[in-house]
Design goal:
The chain has four helices and three strands; from the N terminus they run αβααββα. It is mostly helical. The protein has one domain: Four Helix Bundle (Hemerythrin (Met), subunit A) (Up-down Bundle), CATH 1.20.120.450. A hairpin with a 5-residue loop joins strand 2 and strand 3. Helix 1 runs parallel beside helix 3 and helix 1 packs antiparallel against helix 4.
Length: 119
């Protein structure tokens, strides 16, 4: 992460990612096209101060949220995977891309903090 974030900050970032993407997944199923705000990762870390949070809270929140998102992602209707989503000024992407990219992003950061096998 930029600025050499700590493991707690990276885990806080993954919780933010879960929260942001949860809304994207659900809202994209309910509509045909959506515009979402950008994500200010440094601002979120500054405001939420994950470095000061107990490890057990961070890990349990992250784990529970991702178990729930696995449930949500597994039930995304195939007919909605092409719903167009725009995040900030980025190019439009589909709901299917967002779901796949969420998992890729998650695994990347888990490897980064040594929480999973690097293979």
């Amino acid at each position: 992460m930029p600025g050499g974030w700590s493991r707690k900050q990276v885990l806080g970032h993954l919780i933010d990612s879960a929260s942001n993407n949860h809304q994207r997944f659900v809202r994209a199923v309910l509509q045909t096209s959506l515009d979402f705000p950008t994500y200010d990762q440094d601002g979120n870390a500054r405001v939420q101060v994950p470095q000061e949070v107990d490890w057990s809270l961070l890990v349990s929140l992250w784990a529970a949220y991702n178990r729930y998102l696995a449930h949500v992602i597994a039930r995304l209707p195939a007919t909605k995977l092409d719903a167009v989503c725009r995040i900030g000024t980025g190019k439009p992407v589909t709901l299917g891309f967002l779901a796949s990219d969420y998992v890729t992003h998650l695994v990347h950061h888990l490897k980064q903090i040594g929480a999973t096998d690097s293979n």
